[in-house]
Task: structure prediction
Amino acid sequence: MQFAFLGSGSRGNALLVEHNQTCLMLDNGFSTRETVTRLGFLQQAPDAIDAILVTHEHSDHIAGVGVYARRYQVPVWMTPGTYEAARHRLGDIPTLNFFDPGNSFSIQNLDITPIPLRHDARQPCQFVIGDGQYRFAVLTDTGSSSAEIESLISGCDALALECNHDQKMLQNSDYPKSLKQRVAGQMGHLDNDSAADILRSIDCSRLQYFVAAHLSEKNNMPTLVRDTLSSATGWAEETIQIASQDRVSPWRTLSRVF
Result:
């Protein structure tokens, strides 16, 4: 199994997960033209996407879903609540599938375990994606963690974890008070310290890759993320990878044998 970020941040999110000729796209917040350009960096054909898996209805996650699904006839999976909140922006979806956030399901040869969470959206979730040997957890766009969330992501082979903001930078920013409260609230986004607390609480012994994701361009910096997480975990700072808003990541392949 391998994965690659097309981009991560408030201006657009998309992530690819591939295993044995099955390729899933997790969210698509980019225009179709931009998506195709970014896929080109990975030598991935735009019609080779087997499904789009949607986390929630915010525009940085769904802006490109409808057009891309129609143009390339890609099935889309989301919760009923997400669809109700986004249907007028999505337009017609050729093949629409619903899933229950409390139950696992499969898309071809990949197993999907939804992670129900708290965010200011209708029925949001994130995912643990497995191929029978390796598990890759994605946890962004949540204002808080829980024992259930940490149980689901513990022991994974790869983890993409939100490090949206630095608390001091957010409080000293020019954001209005209401936006600061929304971002930092229980239904908002994880800050660096909260991400560090999660890493302290879960089993990281199998991790081959850790990626800090969904960084705010105004209220965070990669150096702060690496310093906070390295201090919490003892990891070397260079092993803490950062998902970029503007640059496509290379494929990261899970292959170690235990």
